[in-house]
């Protein structure tokens, strides 16, 4: 019996990439791979990448450069790039770094076994399609190994909002929601393996509208169904858009005991002028009134937000409007970023 091949995955960016990396490892597990914690003894290296900011993308090329020595010492080593940089740049990655054998986008990683076989045969393997076949259905049956107490669970992908600063619609595609029965099946399986807290993931998770009993389900209905699973103790979800915080979802924060009193609700700016330029489709005042409604339903909720500083044409007055909003909301946590120009935005 031959020794298993070793797979090293490095994950950049959001929680969904963490989930995707788990599924990639599972997909390649069927090809005889086991995970290793170091690239030094790996037979395959996968970088699961983020394209949301320029610095994150350039980190990938820097990391690939460090693998040249490993590749020289082990010509059979296969190196792959996955995730949103793979989707956005495709063949350009192989042009800039010829040591890369495999490039796969976030909607195609269920095809990793076939791509790995092509790479092993000496081909350059590239797949950045938005395929019709469902990756979640292809990878439906997950290994039964024990898990820790927390897990991510993707329920929705893509975004139709087209905020002026964001590449997600181009790298993850249009909004797509997984069927509710499949999500409940995966959640029960996770609980059986020891998970007690599940975080529901989506680029725009509160736009969830997956098919289920009686028609499309809202995120609130999905959360209430998950709350009925014995052994599941805590539910969270991220990331949300203010325009999709429906009345039933706000109500769920008040009446669903398993839904944790935390909400990540990005606003990006407190200036109406900048919000309009960002194509956010809401005003600062509308956001503040929404926060009031959420806190009325769940007074102890902790809010976090995202903010972009230095958006094109932002003035000191615009910046101070953002600071005013931050003071008004009294966030428990915030993520602030310098504006980063991205292709296509």
Notes on the protein architecture:
- By secondary structure, the protein is α/β, with parallel strands linked by helices.
- The chain has 2 domains: 5-127, 3-Layer(aba) Sandwich (Rossmann fold), CATH 3.40.50.12160; 144-338, Alpha-Beta Horseshoe (pyruvate-formate lyase- activating enzyme), CATH 3.80.30.
- It contains 14 helices and 16 strands.
- The strands form 5 sheets. It has a 6-stranded parallel sheet, with helices on both faces. A 3-stranded parallel sheet has the order 7-10-13.
- Helix 6 (112-120) links the parallel strand 5 (102-104) and strand 6.
- The protein is globular.
- The N and C termini lie far apart (52 Å).
């Amino acid at each position: 019996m031959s020794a298993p091949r070793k797979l090293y995955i490095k994950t950049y960016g959001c929680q969904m990439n963490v989930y995707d990396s788990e599924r990639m490892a599972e997909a390649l597990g069927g090809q005889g791979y086991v995970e290793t914690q170091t690239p030094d003894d790996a037979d395959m290296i996968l970088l699961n990448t983020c394209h949301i900011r320029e610095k994150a993308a350039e980190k990938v090329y820097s990391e690939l450069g460090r693998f040249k020595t490993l590749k020289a010492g082990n010509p059979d080593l296969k190196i792959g790039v996955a995730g949103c940089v793979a989707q956005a740049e495709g063949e350009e990655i192989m042009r800039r770094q010829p040591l890369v054998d495999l490039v796969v986008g976030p909607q195609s990683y269920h095809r990793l076994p076939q791509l790995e076989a092509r790479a092993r045969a000496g081909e350059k393997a590239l797949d950045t399609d938005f395929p019709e076949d469902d990756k979640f259905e292809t990878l439906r049956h997950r290994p039964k190994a024990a898990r820790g107490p927390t897990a991510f669970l993707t329920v929705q992908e893509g975004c139709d909002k087209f905020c002026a600063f964001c590449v997600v619609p181009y790298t993850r595609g249009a909004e797509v929601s997984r069927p509710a029965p499949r999500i409940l099946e995966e959640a029960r399986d996770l609980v059986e393996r020891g998970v007690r807290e599940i975080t529901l993931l989506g680029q725009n998770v509160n736009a969830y509208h997956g098919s289920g009993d009686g028609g499309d389900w809202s995120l609130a209905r999905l959360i209430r169904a998950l709350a009925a699973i014995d052994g599941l103790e805590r539910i969270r979800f991220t990331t949300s858009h203010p325009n999709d915080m429906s009345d039933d979802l706000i109500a769920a924060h008040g009446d669903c005991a398993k839904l944790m009193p935390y909400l990540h609700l990005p606003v990006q700016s407190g200036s109406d002028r900048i919000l309009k330029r960002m194509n956010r489709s809401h005003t600062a005042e509308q956001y503040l009134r929404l926060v009031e409604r959420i806190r009325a339903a769940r007074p102890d909720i902790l809010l976090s937000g995202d903010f972009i500083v230095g958006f094109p044409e932002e003035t000191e007055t615009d910046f101070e409007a953002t600071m005013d909003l931050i003071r008004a909301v009294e966030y428990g946590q915030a993520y602030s970023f310098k504006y980063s120009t991205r292709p296509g935005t």
